[in-house]
TrEMBL record:
Biological processes per GO annotation: transcription preinitiation complex assembly
Repeat keyword on record: yes
Domain Transcription factor TFIIB cyclin-like per the UniProt entry, residue ranges: 14-100
InterPro entries in alphabetical order: Cyclin-like_sf (IPR036915), TFIIB (IPR000812), TFIIB_CS (IPR023486), TFIIB_cyclin (IPR013150)
Any GO molecular function: translation initiation factor activity
PROSITE patterns (alphabetical): TFIIB (PS00782)
Protein name, UniProt field: Transcription initiation factor TFIIB
Keywords on record: Initiation factor, Protein biosynthesis, Repeat, Transcription, Transcription regulation
SUPFAM superfamilies associated with the record: Cyclin-like
Family: Belongs to the TFIIB family.
Recorded superkingdom: Archaea
Length: 108
C-alpha cells in the first residue's frame, strides 16, 4: 500500500479514534447515548492530544468503556477490547487518562 501511495503521491490521512467509534458501539449493541458520550471523551482526548502515539481503535475503545461505565451500563474491558480488536490491558492502561476528562454535554 505504501509503495502505491508513494508512486502516485497520494496523501492518506491517518485513522482517527472517531473513525472507529460507530463500529465499536454497534458491535457492543450500545445506543446513541454511549456513542455521544464516547464522542465527547474523544473530542477532549484529541484536543489534549492524548491520542498521539496510541492505536486509534484502542483510544476509541477506551472512550466507549468510559462512556458506558459513566452511564452505569454493564460492560467489561475485555468485551470492549474484543469489539475493537485490541488488548484489554491497553484499555486498562488508557482508561485512567480518559476517565479524568469530563465528557462535554451533548445538546442532542
Amino acid at each position: 500500500m505504501s509503495v502505491i501511495r508513494i508512486e502516485f503521491e497520494l496523501s492518506i490521512p491517518p485513522a482517527r479514534p472517531q473513525d472507529f467509534l460507530p463500529r465499536i458501539v454497534s458491535e457492543l449493541e450500545f445506543g446513541p447515548d454511549v456513542e455521544r458520550s464516547a464522542g465527547a471523551y474523544l473530542t477532549q482526548a484529541t484536543d489534549e492530544e492524548l491520542h498521539v502515539g496510541k492505536h486509534p481503535a484502542a483510544v476509541a475503545a477506551t472512550a466507549v468503556y468510559a462512556a458506558a461505565t459513566g452511564l452505569d451500563l454493564p460492560v467489561n474491558q475485555q468485551a470492549v477490547a474484543d469489539a475493537a480488536d485490541v488488548s484489554a490491558v491497553t484499555i486498562s492502561r488508557q482508561y485512567q487518562e480518559i476517565q479524568e476528562l469530563s465528557p462535554l454535554e451533548s445538546t442532542s
